[in-house]
């Protein structure tokens, strides 16, 4: 097969070499050549025949990075990308290679057709079929939408930020991919007569003039669910879902305020800022497999409609079985886990900064100093275990790491640069604390019973025997100066 795909390599005219795409419809086994994508996301294609003068096939630069970015964008715009297999070939050989490929497909066995995946092109040059369209890919493999030189660093400087600082905070990668920063970023706004400091999430967006603008996503105390959002009026069920899980749970029609276009979308709540985020339903990508569980069409449809899906028997990276609810999140742009289907415990950074001393045991914060704990860390942290965290950044932008433990008695987070064992030692109550606890809860008093050696009865306030009374009277006399 390899020889048949590449045997027509001789150029027929001298011009810059480019590539084009062949497409195999996996349902019809039809091989065709790609022209492009229409406005509805449907693939435009033509049979492999001699090209007419007015018939323009897709033509892309054959260099790796340029093709990777092009194909990633192309693939993401397709309405049904999983229905097709794509192959990159020289534009000179497109017709002959397409005919050869069609002959091969017509007579190949299912096992031989499976070998075609070795030649298939996938987004981000990920040519491992096992990694295709799985939940683990989420946003990590998205191509870069922006370059560092496109960022308005002069504006960033007004916020006390620069490229070096953002790189140390691990924020640049998400920005360049077109996402919001994964954590809250501390910024300073100097107004001349006043200086304001706040925590925000940052994102880059292309303005009407084509310039890349920096957007600040500030923290809200709570989302405003009483007003309409892009033309949608929230129902009581919508409000309940957004508050409890962060996802509204259904697809609704939203209105683009600039064009009045009706856009079916899902809505989620940014759990760090409480900002409402909408995402086009047509862009939703649902994985074929989640942690070892192969999804059927009904399960995929549930997720495509924005609903939650409970899965049992998934396998963690450690090889352990677990159950969880999964759901598409508009803010993260991928299917996320909702352990126990309860996200109330994911407190915003605002509550962490402003109300940390008022947390109850049921309100264990998931964000520590701008760093959001992953699900595994959070479960241990919530259970009172000591957790190692890295990626923290001090006020000067310097990275550091350490150990944190949630103190259920004080409802505060204890931090230490040292090993967790030392942190536990530091967290032990002092002798003075033990004495005061005994006084408050058992009725002890320092004066009446402080010299009694054996344990006292509950609520005992005076010596109960002659022996205890003798012990209490044996008070050490101060030493006098010897003359």
Using brief descriptors, characterize the structure shown.
alpha+beta; DUF3945 domain-containing protein; DUF4099; 5-stranded antiparallel β-sheet; DUF3945; 483 residues; 15 helices; single chain; disordered N terminus; 21 strands
Give a topology summary.
Blueprint: H1 2-6, E1 18-25, E2 30-37, E3 43-46, E4 60-61, H2 64-77, E5 84-90, H3 94-107, H4 110-114, H5 153-158, H6 163-168, H7 172-176, E6 185-190, E7 195-206, E8 212-218, H8 236-244, E9 252-255, E10 262-269, E11 276-280, E12 289-290, E13 293-294, H9 297-304, E14 309-315, E15 321-329, E16 334-338, H10 349-354, E17 367-368, E18 371-372, H11 375-382, E19 387-393, E20 399-407, E21 412-416, H12 420-427, H13 431-442, H14 446-449, H15 466-473
Antiparallel strand pairs: 1-2, 1-4, 1-5, 2-3, 6-7, 7-8, 9-10, 10-11, 12-13, 14-15, 15-16, 17-18, 19-20, 20-21
Care to give the gist of this entry?
The protein has helices at residues 2-6, 64-77, 94-107, 110-114, 153-158, 163-168, 172-176, 236-244, 297-304, 349-354, 375-382, 420-427, 431-442, 446-449, 466-473; strands at residues 18-25, 30-37, 43-46, 60-61, 84-90, 185-190, 195-206, 212-218, 252-255, 262-269, 276-280, 289-290, 293-294, 309-315, 321-329, 334-338, 367-368, 371-372, 387-393, 399-407, 412-416. It is α+β, with helices and mostly antiparallel strands. Residues 424-483 are annotated as: Disordered.
């Amino acid at each position: 097969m390899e020889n048949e795909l590449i045997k027509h390599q001789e150029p027929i005219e001298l011009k810059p070499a480019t590539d084009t795409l062949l497409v195999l419809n996996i349902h019809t086994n039809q091989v065709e050549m790609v022209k492009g994508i229409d406005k509805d996301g449907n693939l435009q294609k033509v049979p492999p025949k001699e090209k007419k003068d007015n018939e323009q096939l897709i033509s892309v630069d054959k260099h790796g990075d340029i093709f990777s970015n092009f194909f990633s964008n192309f693939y993401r715009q397709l309405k049904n990308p999983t229905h097709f297999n794509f192959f990159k070939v020289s534009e000179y050989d497109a017709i002959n290679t397409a005919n050869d490929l069609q002959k091969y497909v017509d007579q190949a066995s299912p096992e031989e057709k499976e070998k075609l995946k070795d030649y298939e092109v996938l987004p981000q040059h990920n040519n491992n079929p096992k990694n295709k369209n799985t939940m683990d890919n989420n946003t990590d493999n998205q191509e870069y939408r922006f370059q560092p030189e496109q960022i308005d660093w002069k504006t960033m400087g007004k916020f006390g930020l620069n490229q070096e600082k953002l790189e140390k905070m691990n924020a640049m990668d998400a920005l360049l991919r077109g996402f919001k920063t994964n954590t809250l970023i501390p910024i300073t706004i100097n107004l001349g007569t006043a200086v304001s400091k706040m925590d925000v999430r940052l994102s880059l967006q292309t303005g009407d003039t084509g310039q890349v603008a920096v957007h600040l996503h500030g923290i809200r105390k709570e989302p405003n669910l009483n007003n309409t959002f892009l033309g949608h009026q929230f129902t009581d069920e919508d409000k309940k879902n957004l508050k409890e899980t962060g996802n509204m749970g259904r697809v609704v029609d939203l209105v683009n305020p600039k064009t009045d276009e009706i856009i079916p979308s899902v809505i989620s709540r940014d759990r760090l800022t409480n900002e409402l985020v909408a995402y086009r339903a047509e862009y939703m990508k649902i994985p074929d497999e989640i942690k070892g569980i192969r999804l059927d069409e009904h399960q995929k449809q549930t997720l495509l409609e924005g609903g939650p899906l409970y899965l049992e028997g998934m396998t963690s990276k450690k090889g352990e079985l677990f159950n969880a609810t999964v759901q598409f999140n508009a803010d993260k742009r991928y299917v996320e886990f909702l352990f126990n289907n309860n996200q109330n415990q994911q407190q915003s950074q605002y509550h962490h900064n402003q109300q940390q001393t008022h947390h109850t045991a049921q309100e264990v914060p998931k964000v520590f100093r701008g760093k959001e704990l992953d699900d595994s860390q959070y479960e241990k942290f919530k259970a009172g275990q000591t957790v190692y965290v890295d990626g923290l950044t001090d006020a000067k932008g310097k990275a550091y790491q350490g150990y944190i433990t949630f103190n259920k008695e004080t409802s505060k987070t204890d931090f230490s640069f040292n090993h967790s064992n030392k942190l536990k030692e530091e967290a032990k109550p002092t002798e003075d604390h033990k004495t005061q606890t005994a006084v408050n809860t058992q009725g002890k008093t320092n004066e009446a019973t402080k010299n009694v050696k054996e344990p006292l009865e509950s609520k005992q306030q005076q010596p109960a025997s002659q022996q205890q009374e003798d012990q209490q009277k044996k008070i050490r006399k101060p030493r006098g100066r010897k003359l």
